[in-house]
Design goal:
The structure holds 2 protein chains of 2 kinds. Chain A is an alpha+beta fold. Chain A contains 16 helices and 15 strands. In chain B, helix 4 crosses helix 12, helix 6 crosses helix 13 and helix 9 packs across helix 10. Classes of the chains: A alpha+beta, B alpha+beta.
Chain lengths: ~500, ~425
Amino acid sequence: MTPPAIDYRDLQGLVRFGYRHLGAARYVLARVRQREAARAWLRQAPVTSAEYSLPPPPDALHVALTAAGLDALGVPARVRDAFSPEFLGGMTEPNRTRRLGDVGANAPAHWQWGGAAGVPHVLVMVFAAPGQLDAAVQRYTGPAWAQAFEAPQVLGTSDLDGVEPFGFADGISQPWLDWAQTSRPASRALDYSHVAALGEFVLGYPNEYAKFTDRPLVDADAASGLLPDALDAPGKKDVGRNGTYLVFRQLGQDVRRFWQFVYGATGGDAAAAERLAAAFVGRTRAGDPLVPIAADPIPGTPPEQVAQNQFTFSSDPRGVACPFGSHIRRSNPRNTDYPGRPTGIKKLLAALGASSTGFRADLISAVRFHRILRRGREYGPPLDPADALGPPAVPEPERGLHFIALNANIGRQFEFLQNAWLANTTFADLSGETDPLIGSREPSPGCPATATFSRPRDGGPAERITGLPQFVTVRGGEYFFLPGLTALRYLAGGPAA
Amino acid sequence: MTPQSHFFVIAPIAAAREAELRGLLDSMNARPGHASADNPLVPFAALDTIHFARFVIVDDQTLDDTLVYGGPRPTPRPGLAFAGEIDGDLDTFFRRIAEVAGPGLGALFGCCEGFAPGGDLAEWLRRHHVPAAASYVNWVGRTVVRVKEDAALFAAVQDHLAREWPVLSTQPAHAVHLRLRALVWEDVAAGRLTLSPEAPTPLDWRLRTLAHRIGMPLLLVAASPVLVPLGLAGLLQLRRAEQTDPELCPRTPPAHVAALAAVEDFDVTNSFSAMGSLKPGLVRRWATIALLWAINFAARHVFTKGRLARVRTIHFARWVFLDHRTRVIFLSNYDGSLESYMDDFINKVGFGLNLSFSHGIGYPRTRWLVGGGSDDERKFKEYLRRHQIPTQVWFRAYPGLTAVDLERHALVRRGIEAAQLGGQQAREWAELL
């Protein structure tokens, strides 16, 4: 069965586009002031669809809702409760913060928004050309806005031209969504690919397991009539289809501390400092990977990205060129479902563990089930590494990343990645270290020190960089649902209870 | 080499004593669900042979599921289980735990039916022990003492390496090895480190293992004229059943998830306890017995060195039949979060899960017992979570260490104990540091 083609008119454009041509963006975290007015505003909001247009749109509007937002809008429990448990529980649920590494300085108690500081109901994102943002925000929010919402938090962004605040090219590697749903997910993938099943990033379509992710389905009635059909449940309407979950985390970056530590650890040698920083990241500042580009094409690599993104770590099984602990190797190990490329009887034996004999073999989960689509933007003014070595400005401006990730299954995608790969003190064969860039250095039982970074060496003991301070601190965050356009109107329309 | 054993002592909780028992169990904990190693009731750390241990109130939340097959709904009394993984044989363990924790165990099992204070506790424990239908040990022969010695040795090597880094970082691997080896043996000579020699392997254990390894396959071959037709007939019947058996994988109630999550992820290792009822019928029951027997055979003779098929994150696991083999409880100790445990399960050993768990009522639909099932990731995760039960008291002897850490430490020790290493061996050894 070929699933029906996706209707781009019902999908928010943010899922398909990063709006690189729109250099200005603002995120408004709003709370419902007056329910009916809020519902009316949401029903009429001219949310930008994912339809391709030439020229591209001059600005864009996107809207996402929290679980608290669904309640504030009066969405009935039978619809609300069918959203994912992670979304309903929220990012600051106490058992979750432990898994995400939101402890110590990262704890929600210190956040500027989200958790105790106030859970937003609605996230409104406006993208525009530089200089046009205020006008676009004015036009999109309109006169009805003030009555409908209060907005205690308005987050600005800055366009650092594809570079994140520490100074590294960012956003190079993204999953390539299989929009046409032409490549059926293999039951077992033997080669790394950037191509991901549509259902990994858009609800209502088959995912990498060729299954549908849970989401609210409702009976057809007057209120739900316009919703798309559920492809896996005949007769049902799909509140989730063409929607996805949006993970928002405001990550403060201490750029001075980063470069001062890196220079300190390398005795002030600029070249060595750049090499160490690149080892932390897994790429040079220009974005070049630390392992060679693969000879064979990797599906889903755009032609202009071959030089920086057509690679796996299979040429570097011991992490000598690119440490296992580096940020990009932790967050995307670029592996397959099986170590090696076993076929036939060897595949059968591999399933029984016959190819997992080496000490480092087969330690990392298959990446295709744990990918995210990044749509974040930086904030704060740029600070050149050379300038970062100097004393702080008074007052020192805040810098960082408004991290935004899209995924259909928060638990299996964002949370797994954050927990098992980035915050994990025992990722791969490591112990006593978390992600060098974004890890907290909080101790855990039996593991008093987590402030190390190992650089494996060929034929010798790994070099240990110790005493890493925390470079990134979580300042706020929450889970949102980014609905399809009809679903947004449905949720704001108050379906018959 | 000292082999490991699993113990599982269970007794029904006396009517109206459960609240009192829960209070006693909570009093053993340093934080909810996590034992204080030297708590006065059962001071686990007093024995250097306990790897993991737990007290679990065995109370199946999913008994209503049996109604889909027409009932009647069984009404088992909740039980108190004391389970764990130890070095050496069970009789010795029961005797020693009765010595160090007699009054505490008496107070706990005193809340159960059929416990007579003042009797022979070790004998009572032995009588209430239920052997596992299948059990797995990550590394057969690795004792608690050994784990701790290896970890101390690894830490000492790291300290020496850090102290002499400016010199050692410029030297070839064999020189690094010789220098570190010399320093460690100085530590040993000075009494700062202990490297105990391996204990002799008990002769009866060796003989029993050998007899099992050779005898059982021979028996199977001899019985194959009967077993093969029986097996095929059973398989065909199961094939028919699995196409119609109902799936019961609803969303786990949030309060149940919260109760489970509240004691998880405080360490790199977690405990897992889950239970459920078998689908009705003799064919199911005998299929479960046969498949768990096969898993046990593989775990005992094949997967004895750090890997259960492809999975390297399980320290110990076991399946135990309850209530005349109508129900099964599964206990394990695993590294990472539950999400990553389930990821390992689904993506690495889905076939094994389906073979062993698909006989439980409501399991996601399988194909020929191995396919499907856990491939339906969402349903499988709900199934597992819903059947999980909270572990009231959990003890681990070596917090913070994963099974992979233990393997690395043992490899480093092997290198230290070797008089010298060849060029490539020395390089591989040095890369472990």
